[in-house]
Specification:
Elements lengths: L1 E2 L10 E12 L2 E11 L2 E10 L6 H13 L6 E7 L4 H5 L24 H13 L5 E6 L5 E10 L8 H6 L4 E3 L9 H8 L3 E7 L5 H18 L15 E8 L4 E5 L6 E2 L4 E6 L5 E6 L4 E7 L3 E2 L4 E8 L5
Parallel strand pairs: 1-2, 4-5, 4-6, 6-9, 7-8, 8-10
Antiparallel strand pairs: 2-3, 3-5, 7-9, 7-15, 10-17, 11-13, 11-16, 12-15, 13-14, 15-17
Helix pairs in contact: 1-6
The chain binds zinc ion (ZN).
């Protein structure tokens, strides 16, 4: 079933597998998959989205699993799942939609008269997010570019902080708030009035199904934290704060790493090399900070501008 406007939905308790019509482009009507699990009892509304970046498939699998395992009879409130928000990028196995080459996480709150990517963002920000108690944005995790688990959070004045939730998750660090990036979902959710949790996790050193379970656990913990499902309420821990420091490819070639996920590295340490296709080293990637290896390219082929390695750099922060 295609839903013309999510605001008009009036669903009975149950699991509803739907398509949200978000607009129209030169290649036809635009729609994205949506699963609404409506609980038998009233409660909060949470929205979980995956694959804003189309190559990040582990989050997709986690939300599809969730759609099959959440029991509406035992759920208080409603869970809106968008397993593949950037459908066109996902079908092409690339980060950005091939129709407009835009980064979906830079176009929020979107534009109803814009590109396909902008129309999807607009539908999310106007039809789905208003009135939600939490949005969880799943990132990271593709065969080519992986992460250790880390989180960021966005609070909204007048609503309970979600930092204690982030601190209760099994993540290695929490990134401190930075300057708002235009078009990022984290930049617009405060204006919409919805607290946000963003998760990066999963890498190609494990099976996709296991990476998906790690993502699944973060959403499951959020549901317990909000009291939407039975189970222990997660307890905050002393998770370190960090900022991220990225090292990018300056020229294309073949990437070889000298470090592993979670390694502690010192400033000045060699993280890896980029070779041209005759084997000559064209970039020595030297750590510009001391920290832990948080994001890393696990694939070989790299293009100029792509992230090769991102460190989580421990940082003092008082919320
Ligand atoms: Zn992403």
């Amino acid at each position: 079933m295609t839903v013309a406007d999510a605001r008009a939905l009036n669903l009975a308790p149950g699991t509803h597998r739907l398509w949200l019509g978000v607009g129209h482009s030169w290649f036809g009507p635009l729609r994205v998959p949506m699963v609404v699990v409506k609980g038998a009892a009233p409660g909060p509304k949470i929205v979980a989205v995956a694959a804003q970046h189309g190559d990040e498939g582990f989050g997709v699998l986690s939300l599809l699993d969730l759609s099959n395992e959440l029991d509406p009879a035992k759920l208080r409130g409603e869970v809106w799942l968008f397993p593949v928000l950037n459908l066109y990028a996902y079908t092409a196995s690339v980060r950005h939609s091939p129709f407009d080459q835009q980064d979906m996480n830079r176009v929020h709150p979107g534009n109803p008269a814009g590109t396909a990517t902008e129309q999807i963002a607009h539908a999310l920000c106007t039809q789905v997010l208003p009135g939600a108690d939490l949005v969880i944005d799943l990132h990271g995790g593709s065969p080519e570019n992986g992460d250790i688990a880390f989180a960021r959070w966005v609070d909204v004045p007048g609503k309970p902080s979600v930092l204690p939730l982030a601190q209760s998750l099994d993540v290695k660090f929490i990134t401190i708030p930075g300057e708002p990036v235009p078009g990022q979902l984290t930049t617009v959710t405060p204006e919409i009035g919805v607290p946000q949790l963003s998760i990066e996790s999963g890498n190609a050193t494990d099976y996709a199904r296991n990476n998906a379970r790690e993502m699944f656990a973060f959403v499951d913990a959020s549901l317990r934290w909000l009291g939407m499902i039975d189970g222990l309420k997660p307890r905050p821990r002393a998770v370190p704060f960090a900022r991220t420091h990225s090292h990018r490819c300056t020229t294309g070639g073949a990437w070889k790493t000298y470090v592993s996920f979670g390694d502690r590295v010192e400033k000045g340490q060699r993280l890896g090399v980029v070779m041209d296709l005759t084997g000559a080293v064209v970039q020595n990637v030297i750590s510009q900070a001391s920290g832990i290896v948080a994001v890393m390219r696990t694939g070989v082929r790299c293009h100029a501008g792509e992230t090769l390695c991102t460190l989580g750099v421990p940082t003092e922060y008082t919320p």
